[in-house]
Amino acid sequence: MPFDPGLIGAPERLHGGSIAGFLEVAAIVALRERLGAGVAIKPVNVTVDYLRVGLMRDTFAAVEITRAGRRVANLRATAWQDGRDRPIATATINALLERPAEPPSPPPPANR
């Protein structure tokens, strides 16, 4: 996430909402890349742990998809600025997945 003055909360600090939103979007993008465009992704729970102050600079994220089942996905996202070993926040995201309906099976052949 490139730094922008509109992301500031307290003076010289990133707003927590911009960090949380960034982590959620990063998770959705990672899941979309894995599942493709045909699956609707609906986040139902996002828990963010703030670990350090986000400063006025670019922020990076990595996402781990811990589970992507038929109906539910669980993800963990981490944000950092100075180094991946110094995260500023982590998020746990749970999402519902809506896959397109499968066409009905054809009826069995009639016995004659």
TrEMBL record:
It comes from the Bacteria. InterPro entries: HotDog_dom_sf, TesB_ACOT8-like_N. Coiled coil: none annotated. SUPFAM superfamilies: Thioesterase/thiol ester dehydrase-isomerase (SSF54637). Residues 13-93 form the Acyl-CoA thioesterase-like N-terminal HotDog domain. This is PaaI family thioesterase. The lineage of its organism: Bacteria, Pseudomonadati, Pseudomonadota, Alphaproteobacteria, Sphingomonadales.
